[in-house]
């Protein structure tokens, strides 16, 4: 019942459309400013934040570099604790496992904890095709699901909606899938949250099967961790008889103690709190308490592809805090939908190409969706050097076109430049031509840069994309080598 | 090849020639910030939870006052007399839904973050009982309060199900504006017991 990212246009086109939506820009500017300020305040409180980041990054990096060992340990500890472990190579296999476990219990609905992995594999749509309704229980996910909308932020998927829009969605859609919103619903966030509480209560109380993800999976103890705020997670993890957790293989950490830096880094980076309201941890089945049938689906779906990339591997350290989205000047203006994935923003711009490759045009456009300002790296709690990975992925995009029969214009331009620069005589001719162009422009150009240098306006043809938003200074009338010859290196 | 073997093979191939050795620096500790109980009380209250500090012999009276006429459920071995309370012996979710309040102990309190951690042993009860009722009264002894997250991690047993609670249920999902009270208990009342008083 929610939309799909399939068939999204490439980033520049999607971004242009998003930028025209003034309501969206206002909603995003307000929300991202709020969360940036909150994060800055609680991070400043921690004196050794940088050391904490280093520890967090190292814990995740160490787990990734010995991943096969940790996965085998995790499987053994989970099994010993009474859980059933499944492995899924891709989205299709993972969805099939969840559907088959659900069907085995003869039910046609599941309640869901917000989970990026299940959004990534399109679980809700897959279950719907099998006749199983998947109820999202996180408030923002509920807003997205009821509004037949797409998520636009990792932490707050409905960040693009303001309170008035949420009220409208609740009034219009809640009644069709359960308890309707009260007629006197206002747009106060507390009132809207209360409406969600009433609407979901009956679903929690009757659910037999719940589906979750996990923020962390501890190999040596077989412990899964879910970090949340509302208590919807606790409801799903506690009340149903059956719990199925879909966990990306990169969520593994080696030991229980490894959770320490991560549980300190995540809430401050994510919601800007010292600690999130609720964190649940469980290791398999606890007799007499919570679900008595526990399944864990370990998901690859491109993660081993990313793991093989020496530069990009660090993206798998990501703990999905979304701090990089909130500080990104590009994200703040275009929002999450333009990235065409459940993983938007700077991390999405590297994660999507790393997971899926750059063969399709939409994914190949993502590494360019950045000004490389570096704010994302600065706030990342596990020190993912996103700008470096972006540049490396741009190289991957260029490499993927090397064999093209019709080369891209920039490839032609680069080849022409290489040909010119590789021969002194050719370079001299080119410099003369450019000097001549400079003299002509200097005389006729109407654009003057600070300092008095002439510049071109918008160029026609293939140069238009570059010069539409930038000044191209007129070439100098005299080249350096001409100046050197004329003045004997400045001595005469 | 099974999905399991296939994924493990891919992982090994991806890491072929990559050294597994990574120096993991130990995470820094927060500097001492004075009295732990004071800090804990202040930080819990920051989440708009209610904190009452009292002496050991006053606990039962304080809990009674907090509960008022509310219908309460208690775990099997709370160790406090709560008149009129139902003792949980496997109540269903629907039966818990008609309870107004729950009274539990905790395993550990974390001063730096204002967090209480429940390990759901017999003085705290099953996870469901501290979740479904709308008011959670949690009795914490000052001696249970530790400085920061790593101290708590070291004390806790990962084999137990754990619930870390920092304030009442809350959400920031609408315009990133924090409001208290969604699905979990909308009121958290921490009774902090001072053995010196």
Describe the protein.
- The complex is a heterodimer of chains A (492) and B (197).
- By secondary structure, chain A is α/β, with parallel strands linked by helices.
- Chain A is built from 23 helices and 13 strands.
- In chain A, the strands form three sheets. Chain A has a six-stranded parallel β-sheet, sandwiched between helices. Chain A has a four-stranded mixed β-sheet with strand order 8-5-6-9.
- The longest helix of chain A has 23 residues, at 22-44.
- Chain A is elongated and about 95 Å long.
- The model of chain A has no long low-confidence stretch (mean pLDDT 94).
- Chain B is 22% helix and 24% strand.
- The model of chain B has no long low-confidence stretch (mean pLDDT 94).
- In chain B, the strands form three sheets. Chain B has a six-stranded parallel β-sheet with strand order 1-12-7-4-2-3, sandwiched between helices. Chain B has a four-stranded mixed β-sheet with strand order 8-5-6-9.
- Chain B is globular, with a radius of gyration of 21 Å.
- Chain B has helices spanning 3-14, 36-46, 59-67, 93-97, 149-155; strands at 50-55, 72-74, 86-87, 101-104, 108-110, 115-118, 135-141, 145-146, 162-165, 170-171, 179-180, 187-194.
- The longest helix of chain B is centred in the N-terminal third of the chain and has 12 residues, at 3-14.
- In chain B, strand 10 and strand 11 form a beta hairpin.
- Chain B contains five helices and twelve strands.
- Chain B is of the alpha/beta class.
- At the A-B interface, helix 2, helix 3, helix 4, strand 1 and helix 8 of A face helix 1, helix 4, helix 5, strand 9 and strand 10 of B.
- Chain A: This is Iron-sulfur cluster-binding protein.
- Chain A: Residues 478-492 have a biased composition (Basic and acidic residues).
Strand-helix topology:
The complex is a heterodimer of chains A (492) and B (197).
Chain A: H1 11-19, H2 22-44, H3 49-65, H4 67-80, E1 84-88, H5 91-104, E2 109-112, H6 116-120, H7 123-129, E3 133-136, H8 139-146, H9 163-177, H10 189-206, E4 209-212, E5 216-218, E6 223-228, H11 232-238, E7 242-248, E8 252-253, H12 259-270, E9 278-282, E10 293-299, H13 303-307, H14 323-327, H15 329-334, H16 345-356, H17 361-365, H18 375-379, H19 386-400, H20 409-421, H21 424-444, E11 447-448, E12 454-456, H22 464-467, E13 472-473, H23 480-487
Parallel strand pairs in A: 1-10, 2-3, 2-4, 4-7, 5-8, 7-10
Antiparallel strand pairs in A: 5-6, 6-9, 11-12, 12-13
Helix pairs in contact in A: 3-12, 9-10, 16-19
Chain B: H1 3-14, H2 36-46, E1 50-55, H3 59-67, E2 72-74, E3 86-87, H4 93-97, E4 101-104, E5 108-110, E6 115-118, E7 135-141, E8 145-146, H5 149-155, E9 162-165, E10 170-171, E11 179-180, E12 187-194
